[in-house]
Amino acid sequence: MSATHPTPGNNLDPWYDLYAERTSGLSASEVRALFAVASRPEVVSLAGGMPFVSALSKDLISDAFQEMMSTQGPMALQYGSGQGVPALRERIVDVMGEEGINASPDDIVTSTGSQQAIDLVAKLFLDPGDVVLAEAPSYVGAIGVFRSYQARTVHVAMDSDGLIPEALRETIARERAAGRTIKFLYTIPNFHNPAGVTLSAERRAEVLEICQRNSILVIEDNPYGLLYFDEAPPSPIRSLDEDGVIYLGSFSKTLAPGFRVGWSVAPHAIKEKLILAAESAILSPSSFNQMLINRYLEQSDWRAQIGVFRGVYRERKNAMLDALGEYLPDLTWTNPSGGFYVWATLPEGLDSKQMLPRAVTELVAYTPGTAFYADGDGRQSLRLSFCYPTPEAIRVGIRRLANVVGAEIALRDAFSGTGSLDEPIDRRYVSAPPPDLG
After folding, report:
1. What pLDDT is recorded for position 2?
2. What is the mean pLDDT for each group of 10 consecutive residues in the chain (438 residues)?
3. In what order do the strands lie in the sheet with 131-136?
4. How is domain 59-299 classified at the CATH fold level?
5. Long-range contacts of 155-158 (CB under 8 A, 24+ apart)
6. Per-domain residue ranges for the chain?
7. Of 83, 94, 131, 146, which is least packed with CB atoms within 10 Å of its CB?
């Protein structure tokens, strides 16, 4: 017997007419779409922000696993608390203490990566048409979450010192004059994804003061804060105010993303609602993964392991900047003091999204800047990730990217009437300063 569909739908999806209106905000991530191509062994991927987990000692993880299963196996395989395993929450207090945050285990709600924490916050606060303020550019995963709840992400200009306070003031005034409701500011102050810049200490205090004065909640997303190269970043915004800031952390960058364990620290009333929202969504985060991480933190010198990661990423960042200076001196780029990313700006008239198919043909991948804007901006920019490829592969990838950019410049000049496809490409070796991202 054939099924009878209640509505005609469309030719590709017979259930199209039954979807909730909010599903119109769901769209494929440009980053996710790149993974299939970037995983091919012949392609140098400068696209995904994948941690170099091979720098993690396998014995540390396997020893923690054996110890956990021998002493707590049945508990690890059971349901757990919606707030998270208490022992791990105690260890998270120690991790956050490294960055200057004072908290108690009861303040913490664990989640399936910090991505789920972003989703839970959005679920609690966002109604259709609400405004979320975020840096320009901003994290693609957060933009997607806000869009799925039918909110408007409004970008605020930033520069090499992070979010610009005056631009924040102007944006708040403009949105409120238009009668729009601003629910919160979403910010990544340390080694920003994708821009690679860090919000200065002075601006942190000023941004917080602006949000306090305007009754705007601050969502501080900090997955990279411990991965600095030389000097630690300024104290978290959460350390300046416990009542107006929700802090998000994650083990995905400082341990391994496969565990999918993150956390949030929120004011008490919000924390209780986060627990209820988490229980509604997944009952409880994985006890197994939480308990395994707890054993790892108890048994290993996790601070030394983070130091190993810092050295790996520092070497790779330097390799990328050296290669950019040699092969692509006409671009401008940021010089991150930690994290995973360099934000590069192409010469005038080039489009990173349109250029990507040519780049893949040349066996190099990156993420176009448009992925990090809710309004389609960012076509002249691209994110380059140095975290996963070896220094040698990074150099090869940047050289391939230079071939792509050179060909695009030649086409631009030919069709603009200012040059010819037969003319040599100008490759002046000039040091490129960090751009003004504003």
Report:
1. 46
2. 51 80 70 63 91 87 88 90 95 96 95 96 97 97 95 97 98 98 98 98 98 98 97 97 96 94 96 95 91 93 95 98 97 98 97 94 95 95 97 98 95 71 41 36
3. 108-111, 262-265, 245-250, 217-221, 182-187, 131-136, 152-159, 162-163
4. Aspartate Aminotransferase; domain 2 (3.40.640)
5. 155/373, 155/374, 155/375, 155/377, 156/185, 157/437, 157/438, 158/192, 158/195, 158/197, 158/437, 158/438
6. 25-55+305-416, 59-299
7. 94
**In this predicted structure, what is the pLDDT of residue 354?**
93
3-state SS, residue 66: helix
Q: Tell me how far apart the alpha carbons of residues 329 and 348 are, in angstroms, rounded to a whole number.
A: 14
Q: Fill in the amino acid letter for 27.
A: S
Burial of 241 per CB tally in 10 Å (0-12, 13-18, 19+): middle
Residue type present at position 25: G
Query: Which pTM value belongs to this model?
Result: 0.89
Q: What is the largest CA-CA distance in the chain?
A: 74
**Confidence (pLDDT) at 18:** 83
Q: Can you name the CATH fold of 25-55+305-416?
A: Aspartate Aminotransferase, domain 1 (3.90.1150)
Question: Which segments of 15-143 are extended strands (E)?
Answer: 44-45, 108-111, 131-136
Contacts of 41 (CB under 8 A, 6+ apart): none
Quick one: CA dihedral 82, 87, 88, 89, positive or negative? Answer: positive
**Residue bearing tokens 């630690």:** 232
Q: Are 124 and 150 in contact (CB under 8 A)?
A: no
Token code pair at residue 102: 């004072």
